[in-house]
Design a protein that fits this description.
Number of strands: 32
CATH architecture of one domain: Alpha-Beta Complex
Shape: globular
Strand content: 15-25%
Number of helices: 24
Helix content: 25-40%
């Protein structure tokens, strides 16, 4: 602090002092230079600094200037574009003397007394997500006269990596993976100048002093593998020509700055050009990005994509495509509504858009949509400028494992998939897959979108709840599409929940290890100590077992929350419903362990957050073969046919024989196989009951022509959605199949029957052929589900309807159900900012654990 001055006023104006504390996304976004500029504007003296709680400001000036200064701090029109303020305190005091001569930006305070701050001092809500390159940096990237011309790591305070390179908080260079790079004099001058766009841009660097890229052919990997250490990094990280790199290694002091810069630029460009040439020649590239590696190939080359599918063992699941700009994307996809804004947004998600044709069939294997996105890292832009055309860019992993993030890990696991690697020596500290979104088409939702996967670009942006929580909660999330959550009780303020990045499925060792490591990382990063752990009710899930053991080891409470209740609670909380509001909840998905030990997935609930009573479901049927049926729509259909067709399989009468023939025709199973499966069903042998709406989708898909086993989760449902053509908004009785709703008064429970619906569909198939009317069947089925939703909602006696679960990723069902509900006076709530699939389970768990 500067020495105090003796005068109590300036120009006879009474001086006041204000102590300001801000929490939110206020570090790493250019907030301190913004405060500095405001101070200059209003004649403020004092200081600003980062601390473990956010930003601290001490300011002195006459009262009117201070009031304007404080007001401008959270003005949307003035504050940095990436800044978000959740809490601000401003304590005014009269100043007996003037303490400050100037306004300065002080170094971060890592030893701040956390007990002195506002109520959320335990949570460091400071590091923003990884943000795509901004327009100013992009201009410099392709400006031949700029010293960062084609520099693959160009960034500033408005853009670049944050979450994936941060070790701890406060967010300073020493706390990032950039700590090993010493800035050159030019970069350091920018870094220290409060008026420069790169003031305290922690990843700041250039060709002279920053990270480097290098290209490796897969054939050279055997020379490198012995050099990989236990941390999956290459010893020394300085790779020379002996393992396939350019021999332009620069000894310190050997060349002047200009020569070093030019040599480094040349080496960098040669690496990118080599990779682009590999792709042009039909090769498969592995490229290190922001949150992990991508496998890349020419999106117009059938042979290259067939090879990628074979090597990656990914027969049909669609690939995402990276286009160099919005103009190129519009050549191959239908861009409308907010699609262009999403593609160009700072978050750069993958956006599901209608395919206009022109790319290889093997991009999406005949589906109507393409997962399109634009470059977000400077390296992507440089690569696409050399390659020219669209690139398939899919997460680099094998067998459903987490995305690869380290060089050594990439070489070991992907050497038989990729033909060449483009790596760099800026470490990725956290794996973070690309986010996936879909544009809303509801009439009153135009201009919005909903998440399929929430990860890079959005994580770790926190959610503020409309109510308080009683305790800190660790929610372990679902088993598939895992995302976990930390929930902070806000004491006198609203509570906050932080969702993790997408962790993938936990059905493999690597995925489960990654899940545990990420939880420990978040706990340390946020200095988080849970008071309770909430887990999914399925007793066999590995994360359920882990949560119970974890709680015992730390002597804290652990509780289960049934899967579908977690879905509904996530929808309620996201939409700001109060703790005392009652809802009618509709949870449709593929699989969730039920209270009765059966597999739920077509469930109806009524109640409040902590008292959701299950009041109805779809009629149960058997899954023939258990887990095998989840991957076989034919088996699912078989279970439903066994339920709706009554006969004696031992009888020799013609009616039973005809039924066997009918089932064989509809499913493709032989009569011998059907006999075996029927015995399994009758004896309950590996044939659990389910009420899953997702499985009903599978059965209808089978009747519409999908006879193969699925190769990725939801494939049959995607196939069914792909068949729909008309997308009519209005639903009349003639637009639906028949269904029945049976009410059991004693149990106060209703069951939605599907017998009449399947009889209607079977009749169409028998009359017109297996798939001639597939589009009509698919859309009428969606209409029927929407009609069921309206019917049971009208009977519920509740005006608030929440719909959640993976089935509601089907945009047609989502929109039709919402439309007819709203037309009948219901308040309709759906997940948008939280995925409706199992990626949103943890959010519901976190809320529940904090309120019970």
């Amino acid at each position: 602090m500067d020495s105090p001055m003796n005068n109590k006023s300036i120009n006879n104006a009474v001086i006041k002092r204000v102590a300001i504390k801000l929490s939110g996304r206020v570090q790493g976004v250019g907030f301190r230079p913004f405060v500095y500029r405001l101070a200059e504007k209003y004649g403020i003296k004092g200081y600003v600094l980062n601390n473990t709680d956010g930003v601290e400001i001490s300011a002195e000036a006459e009262e009117s200037a201070l009031l304007n200064f404080v007001k401008s701090l959270d003005s949307d029109s003035e504050k940095p574009p990436l800044a978000v303020i959740y809490h601000k305190t401003a304590d005014f005091i009269c100043s007996e003397s003037l303490f400050y001569k100037t306004f300065e930006i002080k170094e971060s305070d890592k030893t701040a007394d956390k007990d002195c701050g506002f109520k959320l001092n335990k949570l460091n809500l400071t590091v923003p997500p990884d943000i795509a390159i901004c327009s100013k940096c992009l201009d410099e990237l392709f400006n031949p006269s700029d010293r960062r011309y084609l520099y693959p790591f160009i960034n500033c305070t408005d853009c670049g990596p944050r979450f994936t390179i941060s070790k701890e908080l406060p967010y300073d260079r020493a706390s990032t993976s950039m700590d090993k790079f010493t800035m050159c004099p030019e970069c350091l001058t920018e870094y220290k100048n409060p008026l420069n766009r790169r003031f305290h841009a922690e990843p700041n660097g250039c060709f002279t002093c920053g990270p480097e890229i290098e290209f490796i052919l897969s054939s050279d990997i055997p020379k490198i593998l012995p050099k990989i250490d236990a941390n999956n990094k290459i010893n020394g990280r300085k790779i020379t020509a002996e393992v396939g790199f350019n021999a332009n290694g620069i000894e310190e002091g050997a060349q002047d700055t200009a020569e070093v810069l030019e040599l480094n630029r040349l080496k960098s460009l040669n690496a990118v050009k080599s990779l682009a040439d590999l792709i042009k020649n039909g090769g498969i590239a592995c490229v290190k990005g922001i949150g992990g590696f991508h496998l890349m190939a020419d999106a117009a080359n059938d042979d290259a994509l067939k090879l990628l599918r074979k090597r990656k063992n990914r027969p049909k699941k669609p690939f995402a495509v990276m286009f160099k700009d919005i103009e190129q994307a519009s050549e191959y996809t239908c861009i409308g509504g907010i699609s262009a804004d999403l593609l160009n947004s700072k978050e750069r998600p993958i956006c599901l858009l209608k395919d206009r044709g022109g790319l290889s069939y093997y991009v999406n294997c005949g589906l109507k949509d393409i997962g399109a996105f634009l470059p977000y890292a400077p390296l992507h832009y440089i690569l696409l400028s050399f390659f020219g055309g669209p690139l398939v860019a899919t997460s680099a992993n094998i067998g459903g494992e987490p995305i690869v993030k380290d060089d050594g890990e990439a070489f070991l696991k992907l050497k038989n998939i990729a033909d060449g690697f483009l790596i760099h020596n800026r470490d990725i500290l956290r794996r973070c897959d690309d986010s996936v979104v879909k544009v809303n088409t509801e009439p009153d939702k135009v201009g919005s979108f909903f998440f399929i996967r929430r990860s890079r670009g959005y994580v770790p942006e926190p959610f503020v709840l409309p109510f308080n929580l009683k305790r800190n909660v660790l929610a372990s999330g679902g088993f598939l599409k895992n995302v976990f959550a930390l929930a902070y009780a806000g004491e006198d303020t609203d509570a906050i929940i932080v969702l993790s990045q997408h962790n993938g499925d936990l059905d493999n060792v690597a995925g489960f290890v990654n899940f545990k490591n990420n939880i420990e990382d978040f706990k340390k990063f946020y200095d988080f100590k849970p008071e309770i752990i909430v887990y999914d009710g399925h007793p066999a899930y590995e994360n359920t077992k882990w949560a119970k053991e974890y709680a015992v080891e730390r002597n804290i409470k652990s509780i289960p929350l049934q899967h579908h209740r977690a879905h509904i609670i996530s929808c309620m909380a996201e939409n700001g419903l109060g703790l005392n509001e009652e809802v009618f909840g509709i949870a449709f998905d593929g699989t969730g362990y039920g209270d009765d030990g059966t597999i739920w997935g077509g469930e109806f609930f009524k109640g409040k957050y902590n008292d959701l009573k299950r009041i109805g479901s779809f009629k149960k049927f058997r899954l023939i073969g258990g887990e095998k049926a989840v991957k076989s729509p034919r088996r699912v259909l078989l279970g439903i046919l066994f339920d709706i067709l009554k006969y004696n399989h031992n009888s020799r009468d013609s009616e039973s024989a005809d039924i066997f023939n009918l089932i064989s025709r509809l499913t493709g199973f032989s009569k011998k196989e059907i006999g075996v499966f029927l015995k399994m069903s009758e004896n309950g042998l590996n044939s659990p009951f389910t009420s899953s709406c997702g499985r009903i989708f599978d059965a209808v898909s089978c009747l519409c022509g999908f006879k193969d086993d699925i190769t990725y989760e939801g494939e049959a449902a995607v196939y069914l959605e792909n068949l729909c053509q008309k997308h009519a908004d209005l639903i009349g009785e003639k637009d639906c199949f028949k269904y029945e709703i049976l009410y059991e008064e004693e149990q106060d429970f209703f069951t939605v029957g599907y017998k009449h619906m399947f009889n209607d569909i079977i009749q169409i198939v028998l009359n017109n052929g297996m798939s001639d009317d597939a589009g009509f069947i698919a859309e009428t089925f969606i209409n029927t589900l929407a009609a069921v939703i309206l019917d049971v909602s009208l009977k519920s006696g509740c005006k608030n309807v929440c719909m959640s679960g993976g089935v509601f990723q089907n945009a047609l069902l989502r929109n039709k159900a919402a439309l007819i509900l709203k037309k009948n006076g219901f308040n309709v709530y759906l997940n948008e900012k939280i995925p409706a699939n199992d990626g949103g389970i943890a959010f519901g768990q976190a809320v529940y654990g904090g309120i019970i």
